[in-house]
Amino acid sequence: FLARQSPALVAERALDPAVHRVLYLGVYAPFLAAAVSLAFGVPLAYHLARGFVGQELVESLVDLPLVVPHSVAGILILFGFGKGGAFPNVTVLGSMIGMVLAMTFVSAPYAVNATREAFESIDDRLEYASRIHGANRWDTFRRVTAPLAIRGMITGGVLAWARAVSEFGAVAVVAYSVSFFYPPSGGEVTTQHAPVFVYGTYLQGGLAESGAVAFILLCVSALIFLIIRYLTTDSTTTGGVV
Q: 149-163: per-residue pLDDT in tens?
C-alpha cells in the first residue's frame, strides 16, 4: 500500500482544505463520543463490577452493539432519537448530535468493558480499609477506587475513540454529511466523517485518490496513538485523581 502511493498526489490531498476539515471532524467527533461513553460507562462499569439483580440483561444490552450490523445501528438511532423519538425537539438526522450518538452506540461497549475489568481487578480490601477509616462511598471511589482504575478508564476511552474513528455504517445512515463549527474558518462548514469521505472519494475519484486520503488518515491515526501511548505509560501517568 505504501509503495504504490504517489507522493505528489498525497501532498496534493494533504494540502486540500476539504481533507483538513475531514481530519478535524475525524478526531473531534470521536472524542465527543468517547467522552459520552466514559461519562455514562464508568458508573455503569462500577456497578457491573459490584454486581446487582438483573445484571445479565444489562450486560447483554451493553454488548449488543458489538454484534448488531452497523447500518441497523443507524436505523435504531433514527427510531430512538429521530423524529417522534425520545427527544422530538432534537435534530438527529444529518447533525453532529446524530453523528456522536451513532458513534457512541457502537463504541460504548469498549469503554464499559475495559473500565469494568479495571474495577474488578482492584482488591476489595483496599476499599474496605478506606471505609473502616471513616471515608464515605464517594471519597473511597475518588481517592482509592478511581486512581487504581484510571488506566483502565483511559484504555476504555482510547478504544472507544478508535472505534468511533473507524465507524462507517451507522454514521452513513444517521449523518452522511454534517455541519459544525470549524475554528480555522471561524464559522460552520459541512463535511463527512473520514470513512464516509474515503468511500465517496473512491466512488468519485477511484483507487488512487482514495488511497492518498487513506494514507493521510493512517498517518494521523498512528501519530495520535503514539502520543496517547506516550502520555499513558507508567512513567508519565500519575495514577491519581484529585
A: 998 999 899 999 989
What is the rounded CA–CA span in Å between residue 141 and residue 125? 13
C-beta separation of 113 from 107 below 8 A:
no
| Alpha-carbon span 214 to 25, nearest angstrom | 15
Q: Give the DSSP letter of residue 134.
A: T
To the nearest 10 degrees (0 to 180), the angle between helices 7-14 and 194-231 is: 90
Longest dimension (CA), the chain: 67
User: Which residues are CB-contacts of 227 (< 8 A; sequence separation ≥ 6)?
Assistant: none
Reference 48, options 203, 152, 199; nearest CA is: 152
Inter-residue contact 237 to 231 (CB < 8 Å): yes
